[in-house]
TrEMBL record:
Coiled coil: none annotated. This is Adenosylcobinamide-GDP ribazoletransferase. Keywords: Cell membrane, Cobalamin biosynthesis, Magnesium, Membrane, Transferase, Transmembrane, Transmembrane helix. Belongs to the CobS family. It comes from Arenicella xantha.
Length: 247
């Protein structure tokens, strides 16, 4: 209910505690979103060109999440690009309107992701493209979730939509569940393309750490928007480096 727009039964129970514990399934949600994109791509390829198939695959994942992370990326670009001081950055991020920096950042990210996946489609079979999508979506969400464990939330936590997700850390058992959801697709991809998979995973981790460090320097921690940006940047880094290793 929180991470996607996928319908759930109306009688499903929900609470702040359940929502907090749901974060252990964040990478599993990534597997699901990646699978939606992969299935869309696989069914589109026999009917359309790779150009249209990749576009439909990206659109399917955006619809499935309600542009959850893309919105965070745009707001982060607006805030970090337009604000000089911490209060200015946070105020701009809260504004629901998208500005110049957000527009440029979103177009650049989606454009580069489209071109990257299109190039991947020219180098790999449908099954490999599908596995890369699932792995990238899962790993990038794991990296975003790990930011919560390591850093400080800097918005007004009492008024934040993500308060139940950020106000406590996961238990060791919950972290293990999260890591399993990330590790399975990454392990399978590593067996098929060891060098590309490992290098791409490392690059995604480095991108996440760099952006987290940048946010710590600028605003003293993270916000819900920067978590979305972390997911987008690490996912994109995974694609770019994986393709570079295949070329």
């Amino acid at each position: 209910m929180f991470y996607t727009r996928i319908p759930v039964p109306s009688n499903s129970q929900h609470s702040a505690q359940i929502l907090n514990q749901s974060r252990k399934y964040f990478p599993a949600v990534g597997c699901l979103i990646g699978a939606i994109g992969a299935i869309t791509y696989a069914f589109s390829m026999p009917l359309f060109s790779p150009l249209l198939s990749v576009a439909l695959s990206m659109l399917a994942t955006i619809i499935a999440t309600g542009a959850f992370h893309e919105d965070g990326l745009a707001d982060s670009c607006d805030g970090l690009g337009g604000g000089w001081h911490t209060d200015q950055v946070l105020t701009i991020m809260k504004d629901s309107r998208i500005g110049t920096y957000g527009t440029i950042g979103l177009i650049a990210a989606l454009g580069i992701k489209y071109l990257a996946l299109l190039e991947l489609a020219s180098h790999a079979q449908i099954a490999l493209v599908a596995l890369v999508l699932i792995t990238a979506h899962s790993l990038s969400r794991q990296l975003a979730s790990s930011t919560i464990e390591r850093c400080t939330y800097v918005q007004d936590i009492d008024q934040s939509k993500v308060k139940p997700v950020t106000d406590r850390h996961l238990s060791s058992a919950a972290i293990n569940v999260s890591l399993i959801s990330t590790g399975i697709p990454l392990l399978i991809l590593t067996i098929i393309e060891p060098f590309a998979a490992i290098t791409a995973a490392l690059s995604a981790g480095i991108a996440s750490l760099w952006f987290t460090r940048y946010c710590n320097q600028r605003i003293g921690g993270y916000t819900g928007d920067t978590l979305g940006a972390t997911q987008q940047l690490s996912e994109l880094s995974f694609y770019l480096v994986f393709i570079a290793c295949l070329s």
